[in-house]
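ESCALATION

Customer reports they have been waiting on this structure for their group meeting. Please prioritize. Original submission:
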Amino acid sequence: MTDVELRLRHNMVRLCRSLFERGFSVGSAGNVSAKLPDSILMTPTNSTLGSLEAERISKIDAAGNHVSGDKPLKEVFLHQAFYETRPDAGAVVHFHSTWATAVSCLSDTDPDDCIPPLTPYVVMRVGRVKLLPYVKPGDPRTGDMIRDLDGAYSAVLLANHGPVVTGRNLFSAVCAAEELEETAKLVVALQGKSTRLLTDAQVTELQATFGQI
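Update from on-call: job pushed to the front of the queue and completed.
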């Protein structure tokens, strides 16, 4: 095992424990992956993000074959679909976090932009978020739907299920997932209220300054 892989494994343990302890994931819900040059590390199936062991983290090759560690998660196709369509993606985070999942259950959520630009930080760290139609957990059609987006979104909400968020590396993916969750909390809190969103010009300015997700 290379030093790079070993550091990534321990970083995944540390960040996943932090997410679990702060309530972003409960029980065995949620999964996280990070990309190596020739393989992918991911949380094992039925594991708890709060008690991962570095040496037991699953490793698959580029074709999806299990290489080492415990059995890979059943939603591996979510992660593979993002890596295949977003070459800059270095990590993928999938939660069932409360507020983002709540937004995914609202009947009036805009499927093409389901997290509105309430703050500059959601624009800078997450970008536009697509709502994907409901399919049962573990259904490979979710991966197909992500591939059909052709890399246009760095984050999606799975209807009545939860968010899937990418980043250039594990830290940025975790930060983006946290930002999405906090903005979703604002979306729910502001339901029914007259709300001021960032204008198109303000969003464009942020994208020009900080880069487009």
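Sent to customer with the following note: Residues 77 and 144 are 9 Å apart (CA to CA).
Escalation resolved.
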